[in-house]
Amino acid sequence: MAQIKFSDSELTELQSFYKQEYNKTIQKLQNIKGILSKLKSNGTNGTAETVKVQTNTSTGKKRGRKPHTQTTSSAPARKLGKWPNFIINTIKTSGKPMKALDIYPVSLKHFNAKSKLDQARTLRNLRGHLIRMTRRGEIKSGKKIGQRDNLFSIS
């Protein structure tokens, strides 16, 4: 076990600190003994009786998150928008899995995208809906060996 060496000034500081702590603890114990003696003199005699303690109760705003309650009614079936319907119908009519770039020219004609801005917006919407629909399980995606692009099919 390692030995710790203190200088004389450090020893006096430590002794005074622990003497103060000791005195505080003695005062707390005397306070507790006084309360216990008062409780015994009030007729409790060490038996288990309830003692009412008044606490500060405020009727202010409640803080924090509200408890989560589950609704028993089932939500109505989700209505598909124009993009999901278009994607599903396009894959169904082809009869085989399709890449996003195979669906893209059909979507340009279907949504009448002529300007470069509309074409970019159409591609962004198509890719976003393909990803969302795959996550929801509405369509499946997979890759052929040696191919880079995903193939999308009806699930």
Structural notes for this entry:
- The chain is mainly alpha-helical and 155 residues long.
- It has helices spanning 8-41, 82-94, 100-110, 116-136, and strands spanning 98-99, 139-142, 151-154.
- A 3-stranded antiparallel sheet has the order 1-3-2.
- β2 (139-142) and β3 form a beta hairpin.
- The chain starts with 7 loop residues before the first helix and ends with a strand.
Question: What's the gist of this structure?
Answer:
It is built from four helices and three strands; from the N terminus they run ααβααββ. It has helices at 8-41, 82-94, 100-110, 116-136, and strands spanning 98-99, 139-142, 151-154.
Helix content: 40-55%
The amount of beta strand, in percent, is: 5-15%
Mean pLDDT: 82
CA-CA gap between termini: 70 Å
DSSP strand tally: 3
Which class of secondary structure composition applies to the elements?
Answer: mainly alpha
Instruction: Note the run of SSEs as H and E.
Output: HHEHHEE
- Overall geometric form: elongated
The biggest beta sheet reads: 3 strands, antiparallel
Count of helical segments?
4
Cross-sheet strand order for the largest sheet: 1-3-2
What is Rg?
38 Å
Report the uncertain regions. none
Task: Name some characteristics of this structure.
155 residues; mainly alpha; three-stranded antiparallel beta sheet
